[in-house]
Amino acid sequence: MCKKIGFIGCGNMGSAMVGGMIKSGNIDKNNVIIFDRSTEKTSSLKERYGINVGKSSVDIASASDIIILSVKPNIYKDVIEEIKGIIDENKIIVTIAAGQKITDVEKMFKKPVKIIRTMPNTPALVGEGMSALCKNQLATEQDLEEIKEIFECFGEAEVIKEDLIDAFIAVSGSSPAYVFMFIEALADGAVLEGMPRDKAYKMACQAVLGSAKMVMESNEHPAKLRDNVCSPGGTTIEAVAELESKGFKSAVISAMRKCAHKSRYMK
Ligand SMILES: NC(=O)C1=CN([C@@H]2O[C@H](COP(=O)(O)OP(=O)(O)OC[C@H]3O[C@@H](n4cnc5c(N)ncnc54)[C@H](O)[C@@H]3O)[C@@H](O)[C@H]2O)C=CC1
Ligand SMILES: O=C(O)[C@@H]1CCC=N1
């Protein structure tokens, strides 16, 4: 891969993607250029990864074959207004914003542009991201495959239909936040029972990691794996019964409904 990849915006998500790409060893640091209006962010990323820093969004759009718009959704319009004169049919625009449909972005450019809409997540930083991708009409299957390969540098990536992207945000783009809350809750519970906090985080994280790996590798239904932990009259079923009575699963499902709804209708 020797195409130039440019990032406009390098906050939480942009920097996680940059970090995941460079740490993978599959993308040469000389092929990555970033711009963020916060010079503090760009300086620190340049120092950490040795990547190039542009002076403006226009700089990034001129220097890159693939332009990743990693600013907040409400900034898309302004950034696109700045760069649209430079974007031609040889460049690929990659969006990562919640709520910005392909048609919305096409309207902002007011001309035919190749667009790949994606939804990454922050575990990209540690090479364990999960991303979804879809394309507009002008982008080719080859363009889509090329961007997918870039996203696979920092985790798994799947092509999906755009109408599933709101569901995808709920289960993947946003879900690290709820998983972190669960880890925090597990650790708090252990501290309550007398465990030192640093140990509590380690135990909680390993339990979550190991459980996820088991679901992925065992081909068993999660409910079966749960049943295997619940000895009759034992400790686990006490916890499971309490979680059921507090509406644990329905709280998660209803949170995801809110998340997908927001993504579907946000401006
Ligand atoms: N944070 C996450 O876990 C995920 C975020 N996203 C999407 O990623 C995008 C960015 O979100 P975050 O990284 O969380 O936000 P953030 O606020 O951490 O980063 C946005 C960055 O854009 C910069 N910025 C603002 N205006 C700019 C401009 N005109 N030109 C250049 N840089 C500018 C800011 O200085 C900031 O560093 C959003 O569209 C969001 O929907 C998608 C998936 C996951
Ligand atoms: O909260 C948000 O809007 C972004 C999109 C997915 C994760 N963070």
What does this molecule look like?
- The chain is an alpha/beta fold.
- It has 2 domains: about 5-160, Rossmann fold (3-Layer(aba) Sandwich); about 175-265, ProC C-terminal domain-like (ProC C-terminal domain-like fold, Orthogonal Bundle).
- Helices cover about 55% and strands about 15% of the residues.
- The chain has 12 helices and 8 strands.
- An 8-stranded mixed sheet has the order 3-2-1-4-5-6-7-8, with helices on both faces.
- Helix 7 packs across helix 12 and helix 8 (about 175-190) packs across helix 9 (about 195-220).
- The structure holds 1,4-dihydronicotinamide adenine dinucleotide and (2S)-3,4-dihydro-2H-pyrrole-2-carboxylic acid.
- 1,4-dihydronicotinamide adenine dinucleotide binds near residues 37, 70 and 71.
- This is Pyrroline-5-carboxylate reductase.
Question: Summarize this, please?
Answer:
With 267 residues, this protein is an alpha/beta fold. It is 54% helix and 13% strand. 1,4-dihydronicotinamide adenine dinucleotide binds next to helix 1 and helix 4.
Shape: elongated
CATH class of the largest domain: Alpha Beta
**Gap from first CA to last CA:** 35 Å
CATH 4th-level superfamily of the largest domain:
NAD(P)-binding Rossmann-like Domain
- Small molecules bound: 1,4-dihydronicotinamide adenine dinucleotide, (2S)-3,4-dihydro-2H-pyrrole-2-carboxylic acid
Largest sheet: 8 strands, mixed
Strand tally? 8
Q: Which residues form runs of ≥5 with pLDDT under 50? A: none
**What is the mean pLDDT?**
97
Radius of gyration: 21 Å
User: Helix segment count?
Assistant: 12
The helix/strand order is EHEHEHEHEHEEHEHHHHHH
Share in helix: 40-55%
Q: What percent strand?
A: 5-15%
